[in-house]
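Fill in residues.
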């Protein structure tokens, strides 16, 4: 079993902390806000306002749930379109009031059920990509577990994208990749090794900006250790991003994702040899 698959297993570990665990430990005075004002309140997406070191921030988070009942209620962190529209609603509110946006990414992917497609799943994700690219406030996204496909990217068009040391971030799951590439989902472990989905690999490619350390064996072994690192990095990055003019903030974000597009095309060309 390769190193990448070990990280996949840690990213999916049943005891791995959820977004709400981080929110409660990093921020104070968190108030959850609900609904997209169009259809419903998607519990897979948690949104609200909190304080970080006395400063108001907006929180956007994909929440997996801690037990079977909550995981079902949260739809295993697979948002419907109303989840992404809720997230966008509060990101635009953050822009109106000048609050930095902190996103916690942890999803296998956007929900692909019939109802979600009928209510415009693709459009909702695309709208978030467009609007996040233009937000005139600092945006930081942290991949804390699984960062799957457009379901993750829809809350990760950020000035800085971080990953926990044993998180994964990919276009789809290793199982899905193996099914498409080889028509054999049992080759998922092999797929994980060539997909370049670990924090270390993505940092080398320039896809992410920072790796947040975990204790050996995974963050569930000592969440306080990881939380302390997140707090320290947030304090530095929020200050640096707030010091930029709006024009500089948007230019840097644009250039960051243009570069990512070039990297993706290069990687796709390399993957062709595995077919």
């Amino acid at each position: 079993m390769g190193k990448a698959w070990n990280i996949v297993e840690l990213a999916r570990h049943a005891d791995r902390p959820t977004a709400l665990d981080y929110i409660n430990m990093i921020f104070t005075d968190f108030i959850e806000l609900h609904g997209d004002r169009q259809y419903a309140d998607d519990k897979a997406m948690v949104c609200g306002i909190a304080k970080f070191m006395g400063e108001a921030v907006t929180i956007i988070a994909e929440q997996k749930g801690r037990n079977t009942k909550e995981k079902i209620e949260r739809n295993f962190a697979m948002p419907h379109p109303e989840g992404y529209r809720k997230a966008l609603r509060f990101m635009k509110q953050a822009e109106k009031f000048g609050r930095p946006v902190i996103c916690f990414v942890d999803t296998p992917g956007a929900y692909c059920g019939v109802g979600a497609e009928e209510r415009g799943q693709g459009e909702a994700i695309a709208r978030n990509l467009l609007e996040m690219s233009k937000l005139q406030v600092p945006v930081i996204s942290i991949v804390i577990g699984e960062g799957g496909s457009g379901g993750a990217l829809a809350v990760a068009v950020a000035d800085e994208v971080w990953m926990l040391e044993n998180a994964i971030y990919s276009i789809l799951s290793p199982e899905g990749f193996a099914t498409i590439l080889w028509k054999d989902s049992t080759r998922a472990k092999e797929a994980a090794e060539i997909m370049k989905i670990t924090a270390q690999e993505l940092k080398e490619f320039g896809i992410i900006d920072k790796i947040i350390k975990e204790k050996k064996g995974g963050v569930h072994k000592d969440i306080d250790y990881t939380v302390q690192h997140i707090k320290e990095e947030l304090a530095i990055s929020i200050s640096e991003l707030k010091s930029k003019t709006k024009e500089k903030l948007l230019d840097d974000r644009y250039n960051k994702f243009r570069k990512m597009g070039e990297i993706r095309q290069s990687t796709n060309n390399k993957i062709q040899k595995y077919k």
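The CA atoms of residues 23 and 220 lie 15 Å apart.
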